[in-house]
Amino acid sequence: MISHHEALEKVLATATHFGSEKIPLLESLNRILAEDIFADRDFPPFDRVTKDGIAVNSQALENNKTSFKIEAVYAAGSPQGILNSLENCVEIMTGAMLPKNCDSVIMYEDIEIKNGIATLQTEVKPRINIHRKGSDRQSGEKVLSKNQRISAKEIGVLATVGTSKVLVKKLPKIAIISTGDELVNVEETPLPHQIRTSNTLSLFAALEKEKITPTLLHIRDEKDIMLQQVENAIKNHDVLLLSGGVSKGKFDYLPEIFEELKVEKIFHRVLQRPGKPLWFGKQQEKNVTVFSFPGNPNSTFVNYHIYFIKWLTKSLELEDRNSEVILNTAVDANSNITRYLLVKTNAENGEIKAELLNENGSGDLISLANADGVILLPPEKVFEVGDLVEFVSF
Amino acid sequence: MISHHEALEKVLATATHFGSEKIPLLESLNRILAEDIFADRDFPPFDRVTKDGIAVNSQALENNKTSFKIEAVYAAGSPQGILNSLENCVEIMTGAMLPKNCDSVIMYEDIEIKNGIATLQTEVKPRINIHRKGSDRQSGEKVLSKNQRISAKEIGVLATVGTSKVLVKKLPKIAIISTGDELVNVEETPLPHQIRTSNTLSLFAALEKEKITPTLLHIRDEKDIMLQQVENAIKNHDVLLLSGGVSKGKFDYLPEIFEELKVEKIFHRVLQRPGKPLWFGKQQEKNVTVFSFPGNPNSTFVNYHIYFIKWLTKSLELEDRNSEVILNTAVDANSNITRYLLVKTNAENGEIKAELLNENGSGDLISLANADGVILLPPEKVFEVGDLVEFVSF
């Protein structure tokens, strides 16, 4: 059996690119940019007025002029205006282009307007209330980087520079396959020896966050049917996420089936809990990556985050932000396996503390619901209160 | 002008419930549970075998018996089996019901099977490798709570207890309305005095996270058209999020229009930056809440999170997890306004540190893209490196 560390390295070594595609801007939330994005013009694109009021020439202010005849009114969205006489002013609104011959904006709060004449009510500064052309970004400057995840803010930036179609990374086509004859559908009333399927639905929902809509499939524990359905799934997907069928049981046919379908076993069984029976492999010919998780819900969900999400992050060339939390309970990890313990995290005084959840180790999905993630405890170590430990968030 | 604190109180005082609705399980990700969820049976629902191997009666082990004739094989998903002779064993798979007359499971790793006889290879313990009926949850126990957000884990729990249709909080119908004649669509090439719309698209994307698909509307700065379109929007929505049109400019018609449409002004202008011109009100008759943000993108996006998201959180009765971060730069907030400064956060050694972004205060959406959120700096205070400050995440 290999260690968690070796297993993760082997998983990451198979990371794959899936190409890129152009999609409409409003569909691109949470997708990954596949190109750098540049400013298509200066930002702001013109000397932009930042207060409602009047625009004047600073010469007049320097000559201690305090009253200005209003020549015209310009709104945001008007073509650039002009101040004809440097003794006068124009009324101007936030967002408008600074008119020609003007270099100062005085806000309404500082003037009084009567009979077409604006009069200063207080001393004012020249050359203010203007957001200078190109002061945020110059035309051609990079505004967003390739391999960045697109959040709501990035949508705004993409809109600003006119990217109505966005080049994003393609996502893998994924099949989630459950096995196990004890499983029935959610809407069914299970017989005493049956339980409802839940694993695959948790994974389905988890993939929604990644903007992936997987195929959901349940296969009966019959070898011929299994072989045929896994073969089909390999034909039509880039990744298979399976749960169940890789333990040592008599009806755990998956390892044999993978062999028949030329899915090369990269490893089977890892020195870890939960998830010892984890099977991982690759069908080289079709470039399909196969994660075969143990059947119990906790184990599948945890290993999905520990292995699959890290693989996906690497495949999409996203930055993998490792995070650490502060342990608030001592843990004796005195064994030869890596342990993943469910924790609830609390941010207190700017520190992230991990509280261990009381699990009975049974793979109880209901305890899982209280967890924010797992801490990873390497083998043969004792952990004290206050120790920093690696954290994988759900 | 009122303070940020007063403004937020007034906003939260108008929080509204929108009722509840039943939706299919797989559509419920990120929605808010509108009812407590209870276990419909014990979990596990039966004494569940947790290892592949043989099941025996512990009497035989106590009598130092080491070889067992295999009576039968039971898979997961089979009805409960039975061990006829307490001297014998049955082969049993993970996930199966413990057969009658058995109370101990011995895993394959600890036995050898030859000619239908299983022989112990090592000393084994009685009464292990069984996950006891009801040990995770008893029938009728609460497994999820009302007002909880449904994440992938909760989808699994809901599936486990058979909730194929989930009662969730209804979400408000929202219109996002931009004003400002300088705005053109993303796919257009702006004239020198024009800019592309971006505000509304950022908000559209931000609402996608809340599972709300808003109506997007742009209104020209013409009072009659504005009046008619805002009136329409009020008829068909629970919330209006507007940007632009509430400053002191000549074409900032919105405050008048709100008055004509009986949208009661709760406040206009707040001692804060960005977002001083923020307008907030309510149309009582139709129960429509109106957030009217200033036109600049940074200001709108920040105030959306500071006010609207907190209002939505309260309306949906979600827990509002206030968070704090550690300042890594001294800030002199020596003014009478509350300031919202863009920060990038870093988790280091279990601590969350906030790095101030170098903004020019112009409402630059491109700087915004580098921020994880804002820190809130109350007026008349000086902040030192290491101080804890309130953080609002994007």
From TrEMBL, chains A, B:
GO terms, molecular function: metal ion binding; molybdopterin molybdotransferase activity; structural constituent of ribosome
Assigned EC number: 2.10.1.1
Location of the MoaB/Mog domain: 175-315
Q: Which Gene3D superfamilies match?
A: MoaB/Mog-like domain (3.40.980.10), MoeA, C-terminal, domain IV (2.40.340.10), Molybdopterin biosynthesis moea protein, domain 2 (3.90.105.10), Molybdopterin biosynthesis moea protein, domain 3 (2.170.190.11)
Q: Which reactions appear under catalytic activity for this entry?
A: adenylyl-molybdopterin + molybdate = Mo-molybdopterin + AMP + H(+)
Pathway it works in: Cofactor biosynthesis; molybdopterin biosynthesis
Its GO biological process annotations read: Mo-molybdopterin cofactor biosynthetic process; translation
- Needed co-factor(s): Mg(2+)
Record-linked InterPro entries: MoaB/Mog-like_dom_sf, MoaB/Mog_dom, MoeA-like, MoeA_C_domain_IV, MoeA_C_domain_IV_sf, MoeA_linker/N, MoeA_linker/N_sf, Ribosomal_uS2_CS
Which keywords accompany this UniProt record? Magnesium, Metal-binding, Molybdenum, Molybdenum cofactor biosynthesis, Transferase
The question of whether Magnesium is a record keyword is answered with yes
The UniProt entry's sequence similarity note says: Belongs to the MoeA family.
Function text: Catalyzes the insertion of molybdate into adenylated molybdopterin with the concomitant release of AMP.
- Write down the NCBIfam families for this protein, in alphabetical order: molyb_syn (TIGR00177)
Q: What is this protein called?
A: Molybdopterin molybdenumtransferase
Tell me the classification of the organism that encodes this protein.
Bacteria, Pseudomonadati, Bacteroidota, Flavobacteriia, Flavobacteriales
